[in-house]
Design goal:
CATH topology of the largest domain: Aspartate Aminotransferase, domain 2
Distance between the termini: 43 Å
Number of helices: 13
CATH architecture of the largest domain: 3-Layer(aba) Sandwich
Radius of gyration: 21 Å
CATH superfamily of the largest domain: Type I PLP-dependent aspartate aminotransferase-like (Major domain)
Strand order of the largest sheet: 2-8-7-6-5-3-4
Amino acid sequence: MKGMMGLAPALLEGWMREYYFQAEIDIGSSGVESFSLGEIRELLGISQEELDRVVLGDGETLGGLGLRKAIAERYGDGDPKRVIVTHGSSESIFLIMTALLSPGDEIVVLDPCYQQLFGIAEAIGCWLKVWPLRFASRFAPDVDEVKRLISRRTRMVVVNFPHNPTGASLSLAEQNELVKAAAGVNAYLVWDAAFADLTYDDPPLPAPVQYERAISIGTLSKAFGLPGLRVGWSLSSPSVLARFVSLRDYTNLHLSPLIELIARRAIEGSEHLVGRRLQQARVNLQMLSSWCDEHQDLVDWVRPRGGVCSFLRLRRVKNVEAFCRRLAATHGVLLVPGSCFRHPSHVRLGFGEATAKVGEGLSRLSALLNATAGGADC
């Protein structure tokens, strides 16, 4: 790892470690309701005999050909040579940053942003330039602004659309402008597409495979409801993936053949998983929209264009982090404070879980918000 210094604490992961497994109700996470093994076997038609035929030997460094083909056909240009399968998108991010960046490199990143997308670069000693998504502008990405930020010194541009935690996104024309701007200075474009399948008003944006220095990241942890599989991937040119392989030889080596089988079948049968959870997310989003309308005196929000989380402001809460701790301790509800994204006046509210649970979580949140508005101390 070239020039790697001390990594800052991962704020979101630290919060989730403290509250996720103890909470009765989760309205803080950024994924959909998880499937059980029995459910996906039934939905995808995976028989016991098919599982029994799996030989638990070593796997290929880039991932099994069947799984890479499935990923390439659904998310890329159909070429499995442009795919590496990773242990979740977290490994993809780690490989990208450590293989391609050096101390002093200039990178452009979103703000707010999932910390791993800039934290590793920051630890390496890169120079960060921030592309802000502003609440006052309803989190709308200003592509002209990022074009001004990108310079001849820019080594990498890192984005995640639809965006975590705001739910903002780009149009296809804006995506093409961004690709062109990165290509104009020969910068790597890291396109985190974790929420690509979860869009409401526009069709999903394609991976920017037309640019050879673009790297698209995907995962089964969000729209597929399979975070426990720990399967992610990167799409890029074979020359870029070769740089990842040299690092992987010292870390995870490969995925389990059993995990790869389930992952391949999940992607091949994605309509049975993603379609079901997207329909649920639409229902939940409408419920959240109605709840926000009913609580206009307590919350400000921007309706997300994609993903299953929203970045709300709590209008009458002075200490948001203390409020979220009290919500977990006294109401059993997980809500993520904006301090995990360096925006302490906001909260990330996730609406991807079962509809009844999201409804109950909003009800409990209402109770504490009303108590706080009435003068209760948080």
